[in-house]
Amino acid sequence: MSVTGTLITDCLIDIFGISLVTTTIAFSVILLLIFWFWYFTEKTLAMHSINTTKRELFYWAAILFTFALGTATGDLLAETLKLGYTQAAIIFGTAIAIITIAYKYLRMNGILAF
């Protein structure tokens, strides 16, 4: 899924000339729609209750577009905003660390952390 998500982003940018800003916004909207439809139809986003084919399809769609969004956003920070890949990685790493700490020690909701 990670390779496929990355390739989707790279193809949209390199082959079709769609900007990183546009792909970042589009993948953000798509991911929000996936979560909305998932919750609307299943009444849960809990990872521990992925026990039907439909929920598993929602889960994998979310994972696919999370990777596509991650690639688009990372490249946007590194290339378009000229932060470079090291600073972009530090930003992502810090965000992941904050969420991990909030989940483990501050009782952040598991679904929100996901």
Structural class assignment? mainly alpha
Largest sheet, strands/sense/barrel: none
Order of helices and strands: HHHHH
Number of β-strand runs: 0
How many domains make up the coordinates?
A: 1
List low-confidence stretches.
none
User: What would you report as the Rg, rounded to the nearest angstrom?
Assistant: 15 Å
Helical segment count: 5
Residue fraction in strands: under 5%
Overall pLDDT, averaged? 94
- What global shape is seen? flat
Task: Compute the separation of the termini in Å.
Answer: 17 Å
Helix amount: over 70%
What's the topology here?
Blueprint: H1 2-14, H2 20-42, H3 53-80, H4 84-105, H5 110-113
Walk me through the structure.
With 114 residues, the protein is mostly helical. The chain has one domain (2-113). It is 79% helix and 0% strand. It contains 5 helices and no strands. Helix 2 packs antiparallel against helix 3 (53-80). The relative contact order is 0.14. The model has no long low-confidence stretch (mean pLDDT 94).
